[in-house]
Amino acid sequence: MMRSMFAAISGLKNHQTFMDVVGNNIANVNTTGFKQSRVTFQDILSQTVRGASGPQNGRGGVNPEQVGLGMLISGIDTIQTQGTLQSTGKLTDMAIQGDGYFVMSDGKQQLFTRDGSFDLGTDGSLVNPSNGLHVLGWMPDATGKINTATPPGNITIPVGSGMTGKASTSVTVTGNLDANTASSTATPPGTPYPLSTTVYDAQGNAVPITLTFTKVGPNQWTFAPTTTQTGLTVATVGSNSVVFDGSGKITTPSASSPVSLTLTYANTGTTVPTTPQTLTLDMSAMTQLASSPSSLTGNTDGASAGTLTSFTVGEGGDITGVYSNGYKQPLGQMAMASFANPDGLEKAGGNLFSTSANSGNAQIGTPDTQGRGTIATGFLEGSNVDLAQQFTNMIMAERGFQANSKVITTSDEMLQDLVDLKH
Questions:
Q1: What confidence tens digit (pLDDT) does each residue in 368-398 have?
Q2: Are 213 and 223 in contact (CB under 8 A)?
Q3: What is the C-alpha separation between 359 and 366, in angstroms, rounded?
Q4: Which residues, in sequence order, are CB contacts of 264 under 8 Å at separation 6+?
Q5: Mean pLDDT over residues 9-19, rounded?
Q6: CA-CA distance, 308 to 304, in Å (whole number)?
Q7: Helical (H) or strand (E) element with 175
Q8: Sign of dihedral through CA atoms 47, 50, 55, 61?
Q9: Could you tell me the residue ranges of all domains in the chain?
Q10: Which has more pLDDT, 17 or 255?
């Protein structure tokens, strides 16, 4: 009878732990990025009353007789399934779709989380405002390149900071030249097609450029660059001939015979670039088709001086700055960690996880690579707690505790009956 009491006591204790886990799950039903826990039980070693014996002397075998000594908790596991994404519309709120964890740091150690409720600190760094931990990733170097092979560091997004002007290095011309246009030698001569675009010098000054296309023969055109900028000369480096084939596709200039423009400023003593500026002229997307009206557009990779007004985060964690001058450039790359056994991570409080001996080391890389999930901005991941299952578990824990307490009461009554035999 004592064994039944000890077994029931183990049942009481461990069903109380079961209830503790259920209570914690329900308490965190609305906690951002929370992962629910699950309790599993196992029996303790059993006491063997009679061992088993095999068939002998014409008789069959005998099974063992064992009395169980109670139960234990075999594990309290963290269920790392995806939670529901909840829209917030906030630019710095991020959720992971798929596997992976944001990499956080307090300057001493790395921690991991699915809670993407981030914000910008006073120094422009991306942090979790509830605990001040920095979000880790990679920043561009002096040349603007991002090297994800190096250890990640703090991400800084300096909204409101300025950028110097970016000198144009190329001009891309797209559009169509009307194939029905008469040549310049015809009577009456054909009308030239002007294309007005803007490029930028090394100081970020806007420079107006006009390319005038004139038809000089069947499928053949020439272009002449001009500018209204005082003290500036625009010249063509290479042939100014543009040739199309019979289907309207451009054949000249080609990749093997590119054309460039050179901008040369006169030495007027004012603050102007002193070195000639060369711009590659890309006309590979131009066509000559029977289309009227014709439309030509020109785009350049340069920009004037501006201020960082906003930023975007792509699914791959790439952070792109948007400036007041319309220019966009990379500001950083977010890091994401994956683990060989994510269920082996230890909960560290504050929606954070830390590595353990059974989780494996963090494999840090970029989102959407090597099985890592993607990032959704303007969303937060909700808890993965299933309330229906938790209430069912609550009933199971309550009834299990109640049944074990009944075993103790019944064993006590039997002991009392045994004591009363003396009377």
A1: 999 999 999 999 999 999 999 999 999 999 9
A2: yes
A3: 20
A4: 232, 233, 235, 276
A5: 92
A6: 12
A7: strand 170-178
A8: negative
A9: 2-49+66-80+384-420, 92-157+328-381, 170-300
A10: 17
Strands (E), 24-169: 37-43, 46-50, 65-68, 71-78, 85-87, 94-97, 101-105, 110-113, 119-120, 126-127, 134-138, 153-154, 162-163
Give dist(CA 409, CA 15) in Å, integer: 17
In whole angstroms, give the CA distance from residue 363 to residue 360: 9
Residue 43 bridge partners (DSSP): 71
pTM of the complete model:
0.74
CA distance 124 to 300: 30
Please name the CATH architecture into which domain 170-300 falls.
Answer: Sandwich (2.60)
Amino acid at 196: S
* DSSP-assigned states of every residue in 247-306: TSBEEESBTTB-EEEEEEE---SSS---S-EEEEEEEEEEEEES-SS--EEEEES-B--E
**C-alpha span between 126 and 196 (Å, rounded):** 42
Tens digit of each residue's pLDDT (9 = 90 or more) over 93-106: 999 999 999 999 99
